């Protein structure tokens, strides 16, 4: 497969999404009894084995649990060989300034990438010291501009927080609070083909009008689907892959680490 720099509008584009790694400055740091750096490495090894020719890596928030530069530097180093192009967006646990410091002399925090016949737009939905998400006016304007100035491309929009209900009662209040404003923009543009997010630590694949809605497993612990209260499942960490086709369709799936043994320790601080 050609590199991103040589992909034409006739080439499919292979993306990998990693999300919600919740790393610490200390590589031995754990959350609910899980070493998050170790589980991330297991997922990276799985991607390397299954996807030898990734074009773009998307990290959709909560890269760090402690918001430390060291955690972001670790993520950058650990994932550097996966794809020639990578982009990060912050989640509610992230520190944007620390992310930018760790991303220095790179394009990791740039909000857009054109690849093949697609444009990927990345939005910041994080709110300082809050778990829920919100798109400020500048982010909504960024989205509208990105969609309007490339009508000939198919568009994938990425953010951290879920803009639709995902079926977990406790998660719904910490989604995107101004989802109506987000959809008011997206609905104006038929070139918007898919929306991709993190935050929910579980796969999600539905359709809203002509737009595909996608979320992914976390690279650490998973939230139990359809739970009323905070609950972690024993499912393995994983990632999502997406093949963006030149005609605007996409193929996608998730993959999880094999032989994963995890017994959540709720005596530790909750997520």
UniProtKB/TrEMBL annotation:
<protein>
    <submittedName>
        <fullName>3',5'-cyclic-AMP phosphodiesterase</fullName>
    </submittedName>
</protein>
<feature type="domain" description="Calcineurin-like phosphoesterase">
    <location>
        <begin position="16"/>
        <end position="203"/>
    </location>
</feature>
<dbReference type="InterPro" id="IPR029052">
    <property type="entry name" value="Metallo-depent_PP-like"/>
</dbReference>
<keyword id="KW-0479">Metal-binding</keyword>
<dbReference type="Pfam" id="PF00149">
    <property type="entry name" value="Metallophos"/>
</dbReference>
<dbReference type="InterPro" id="IPR026575">
    <property type="entry name" value="GpdQ/CpdA-like"/>
</dbReference>
<keyword id="KW-0378">Hydrolase</keyword>
<comment type="similarity">
    <text>Belongs to the cyclic nucleotide phosphodiesterase class-III family.</text>
</comment>
<keyword id="KW-0408">Iron</keyword>
<dbReference type="InterPro" id="IPR004843">
    <property type="entry name" value="Calcineurin-like_PHP"/>
</dbReference>
<dbReference type="InterPro" id="IPR050884">
    <property type="entry name" value="CNP_phosphodiesterase-III"/>
</dbReference>
